[in-house]
Specification:
Largest sheet: 8 strands, mixed
Distance between the termini: 21 Å
Number of strands: 8
Amino acid sequence: MRIDLHTHSTASDGTDTPAELVRNAAACGLDVVALTDHDTVGGHAEARAALPAGLTLVTGAELSCRIEGVSLHLLAYLFDPREPEFARERELVRDDRVPRARAMVGKLRDLGVPVTWEQVARIAGDGAVGRPHVASALVELGVVPSVSDAFTPQWLANDGRAYVGKHELDPFDAIRLVKAAGGVTVFAHPLAVKRGSVVPESAIAELAAAGLDGIEVDHMDHDGPTRARLRGLAGDLGLLPTGSSDYHGSRKTCRLGEYTTDPEIYGEIVRRATGAFPVPGAGG
């Protein structure tokens, strides 16, 4: 059983539509895929309608959070998207994305880069605009060779020259909100140091004490020693260790199913969730 619990579609910053994503997930041999677009559930309905037979969809979102000045992402699974307080908070985060992206465009223009808001908006389309769309504009302009090369201190990395902060949830509040909506939380790529500053292990322990369910261990931004360290930390803290591709279509080099989650861990995530159930494919 092959399970990938972290993917993105055009509803946020991926390049596959939700329908394309689930079809591609089935084609590459996945049994379960989670759609976890940034701060939005906007792709769920399309993914559900297109779900091929034999593939199960886990609905979710990747939540933008900040603790002690450090950005972090929480994966939320199988929550009730209609729960009003959590829905309002997701909307606040989404509403801040456009002014933030416009401000990054302004900073880049001040640095001599001829990027325009119209270019970034075209790349984002109907998705929740974010840094990867600005990064894609830099690739189009020949400023950097790839999206990942834009996430450096020279350009868009946390605290980079063109970085602009955004409204982000306190992760303790996020855990509370997700749990109140019947969902399960997993700390995404917690030690991805090449993305910028990461939270200390002491903060992960505090989040675990506050109800965090798991940590993403197997991820393309964690090398072998980091994965071993995180697996040990998960054991020490009683957290579920997951594995995921963090697939973004052609925007990043990771492949669907590049890293996967153990079926027993997936079963425990499903057991803990009360807000929604995995959706079995019926050949949509």
